[in-house]
Each structure stands twice: as C-alpha cells, then as structure tokens.
Design a protein that fits this description.
The chain is an alpha/beta fold. It has helices spanning 2-8, 24-34, 51-60, 75-83, 94-98, and strands spanning 14-17, 39-43, 65-68, 89-90.
C-alpha cells in the first residue's frame, strides 16, 4: 500500500474491492493498518447480506468509507442497509438487477 500511495502521490484515490472475503475483526485491523495511506474506500468487505456487520464496521472505522450494495436488487435489501447505516457509499448494480 505504501508503494501505491507513493506512486499515486497525495492526491490519488486508493479504493479497495475486497470481494466479500473478510471478517469484521480483520476488516477493522486492516483499516487501522492502512490508515496512514488514506484509502478512499473499502468495498464489499463482508458477505453481501451482513447488514448488521456493515453497520458495525461503519460505526468503528473512521479512516475510510465503507461501501456496499452491488448485491442488492430490491428496496428490501436497501432498506436493511439504511436501517443499519451500513454504508457511506451505496453501489446498486442496475445491470445485474435487470438480468
């Protein structure tokens, strides 16, 4: 991450897509380790429907934005994201919903 930050310089945005593969604890630890490199967002850290987990991440992690929503296709899932304050940036997949 240091090398990426050095290559991008202070104004470049670093965004991590994490493919639903982390636990809450590891995501929090990773965010702490990456804080000095000013990561703009961490996307899809947890399994897609772990609304409560995303909400807890967002409440605890202040160094970056938590992003999710690309696996939600209805108002019901987005309502759960909203109820849990689960993301600072929502990424609805409009194409996937139509398929």
């Amino acid at each position: 991450m240091k090398r990426t930050r050095d290559l991008l310089g202070p104004d470049g945005d670093i965004m991590l897509g994490l493919l639903d593969g982390l636990t809450e604890r590891y995501t929090i630890e990773l965010a702490e380790m990456l804080a000095p490199y000013r990561v703009y967002w961490m996307e899809e850290c947890l399994q897609p429907h772990d609304y409560e987990g995303f909400g807890r991440l967002r409440a605890q992690i202040k160094s970056t934005r938590i992003v999710t929503g690309e696996h939600e296709y209805t108002r019901y899932g987005f309502r759960k994201l909203l109820e849990n304050q689960a993301a600072e940036i929502w990424q609805p997949d409009i194409i996937g919903a139509a398929a």
